[in-house]
Specification:
Keywords: Membrane, Transmembrane, Transmembrane helix. By secondary structure, the protein is an alpha/beta fold. It is 31% helix and 14% strand. Strand 2, helix 6 and strand 3 form a beta-alpha-beta unit. Helix 7 runs antiparallel to helix 9.
């Protein structure tokens, strides 16, 4: 007590000096702490990498960063790495400041540190591509963030994509591929190079110790798949497939013994086990040794070297590859292909919630993939896509019940149904061209499926309903319709949109609320006056079999109306006045239709659709009878 009183007395006598020293010490500690934390969390752009996790509740340091359980026993702060740091604790889509300089390219190298900063629950979700697939990649990212997932990374195969994604706030890394920025086309040498890059990427990431959900850019996520994948913790690899016949009717893994479709590597999940790493290494070596092997074929060959027995009685996993790898085949009903989603709607019939859709089984190249996703309202487009110059032209198609439901579902009844729709679409294309509007394509009904090989109409054992709403690329050459053709040969371009666009939530109110309904009537009747003073939102009665001059006279007053919808286009337009324009229009739209494939027991087995079938009395739905007949009808 005497010692304590003495201390108090000493402090009392030297209080001014002590307080001065005390304040100086405190200020020194505060300033030192500020500089220490500034060094660790500096936002200097030169020292930053691509992106960091959107989580705010943990530090982002180096590979040596300690987890929470270790902090209780550690009394020293680890020294930060002097290498490039990813110090952007921002959510995805938060764009960098415009006055910030982009970090050097080397800061975007794929490293364990970079992946660690994006990982959640030890899982990273990855896709990759070049600039030609920028819109697919943005759609992929948007769908993931919409379902609450941010543990993702995008590999950029060219610097143009890398820079574009960086400035949009998307986590990106450089694959060092130095690839072309254009669409390389399925099956091309560059396409195969992309496949090899995927395998190299998998082989690079697995040794980091993270689970990898690898995706192609032409797929989208509809529901968080991570809880589903976690149901199979002992699986080394879980892969999607091209299976079109269900082997299960719930959300279990496919019964591997009944799977006849190829394993599809557009969606597959890898755990960093020794078996998985061994598979990735051998797969990579196979492809690098022979650049003619398609990556998916190589994967199927190597995994099927040994298949079976089952791992156990319940999980659905199977031993594969070297006899040790535990493989699971994701159910095609909910990890959907382009067939099980867009044609069969298998998930819908089985009352299941789909996790993903991959735009396989389609016939319109990259443009066909976009269009399918747009039809399903799953594609991310800029706002101007929903408000094109000149506005929209839409119409309600008419199909007699007998064409849909009467008689057998045969090649003949299918073509009768399609031809009936083609004739209406042809008229609508002409009116859209005349009014300089974008045509909203109608939903298309089919009675039989389209594939690459002979079949009886629908695949036996599949869940394809007849008739069914078929994707536009089953009949029309979507890639040709969207291609810029020279006007001197084909006349003015005719832009199109998917049938669902007017129901899309992204359609702006100013478009949705600017609407004119048009009903065809018989000219000469008292109420068929085609008055051009009809108010927007009202009903315009317009004579059937109108001329080009009549269309231009009436609809010139409605140029500012965003949507003009006809109740029907049957007998609406008698044709272009100018023969040169009519010829160019015909030359254009003849190329818009494709083929159906394929009848059994005939080579070739495909049948050409014909935009002007009704002008050929002898036209029949039969395949080419001679080699000289095997060409499009133009």
């Amino acid at each position: 007590m005497a010692w304590r009183n003495g201390c108090y007395d000493e402090v009392g006598h030297s209080k001014p000096l002590f307080l001065t020293i005390y304040i100086v010490v405190i200020i020194g500690i505060v300033v030192s702490s500020f500089y220490i934390f500034s060094a660790i969390y500096s936002s200097n752009p030169v020292a930053s990498s691509s992106f960091s996790s959107i989580s705010y509740d943990r530090p982002h340091l180096t590979d040596a960063t300690l987890n929470i359980s270790q902090l209780a026993t550690v009394h020293t702060v680890p020294t930060p790495s002097l290498g490039p740091q990813n110090v952007w604790p921002k959510p995805i889509w938060d764009v960098p400041p415009h006055d910030k300089k982009m970090p050097p390219l080397e800061d975007f190298r794929l490293t364990k540190t970079l992946v660690q900063e994006r990982v959640k629950d030890n899982v990273i979700i990855v896709t990759f591509g070049n600039y030609a697939f920028m819109d697919f990649i943005l759609t992929w990212v948007k769908q993931l963030t919409d379902i609450g997932l941010s543990n993702l990374l995008v590999g950029a195969m060219d610097t143009e994509l890398l820079e574009a994604l960086y400035w949009k706030g998307v986590p990106v890394f450089d694959m060092g591929s130095h690839m072309s920025t254009v669409d390389v086309g399925w099956g091309s040498p560059t396409f195969h190079k992309m496949g090899r890059e995927k395998v190299i990427l998998i082989d690079s990431i697995l040794p980091y110790g993270f689970e990898l959900l690898m995706c192609d850019t032409d797929m989208v996520w509809l529901k968080n798949p991570l809880p589903y994948l976690a149901r199979y913790p002992t699986a080394d690899v879980l892969t999607s497939s091209d299976q079109v016949i269900p082997t299960v009717v719930d959300d279990s893994l496919e019964i591997w013994q009944e799977v006849s479709g190829a394993f599809n590597i557009g969606i597959f999940h890898w755990r960093p086990t020794e078996s998985a790493k061994k598979l990735a290494k051998q797969w990579k070596e196979m492809l690098l040794a022979d650049d003619k092997i398609w990556d998916q074929n190589g994967f199927n060959d190597i995994v099927r070297r040994q298949i079976g027995p089952s791992v156990d009685d319940d999980s659905g996993l199977v031993f594969a590859f070297d006899g040790n790898l535990k493989l699971g085949i994701l159910p095609a009903s909910i990890f959907c292909s382009g067939h099980t989603y867009f044609v069969q709607a298998m998930y819908e019939q089985l009352r299941l919630e789909p996790y993903a859709v991959h735009t396989t089984f389609q016939y319109g190249a990259t443009e066909g993939k976009r269009h399918r996703l747009r039809e399903a309202m799953l594609f991310r487009d800029p706002s101007e896509y929903y408000n094109p110059p000149g506005g929209f032209f839409s119409f309600k198609p008419y199909i007699p019940k007998r064409l849909l439901l009467s008689g057998e579902h045969t090649v003949e009844s299918h073509f009768t149904l399609i031809n009936y729709q083609i004739k209406q679409i042809r008229t609508a294309l002409a009116i859209a061209s005349l009014l300089n509007r974008t045509l909203v394509m109608p939903p298309l009904w089919c009675r039989i499926d389209r594939l690459w090989y002979p079949h009886p109409g629908v695949l036996e054992g599949s869940m394809t309903r007849q008739p069914f709403l078929c994707p536009l690329d089953h009949v029309f050459e979507v890639n040709v319709m969207l291609k810029k053709l020279p006007e001197e040969e084909f006349g003015p371009g005719i832009d199109i949109r998917e049938y669902s666009i007017l129901d899309n939530p992204s359609l702006q109110p100013e478009v949705r609320n600017s609407w004119l309904d048009v009903k065809l009537c018989k000219e000469g009747r008292q109420d068929c006056d085609a008055s051009n003073d009809t108010s927007v939102g009202g009903l315009l009665k317009f004579p059937k079999r109108s001329s080009e001059e009549k269309f231009m006279k009436v609809f010139s007053s409605f140029k500012d109306v965003k949507v003009i919808k006809f109740s029907s286009v049957q007998d609406a337009f008698i044709g272009f006045t100018n023969k040169d324009r009519e010829d160019k229009f015909r030359n254009r739209v003849k190329r818009y239709v494709g083929i159906w494939c394929c009848v059994p027991d005939h080579d070739p087995g495909h049948i050409y659709y014909d935009m002007y079938w009704d002008e050929k009395p002898e036209w029949k739905a039969i395949p080419p009878q001679t080699p000289g007949d095997d060409h499009p009808p133009w």
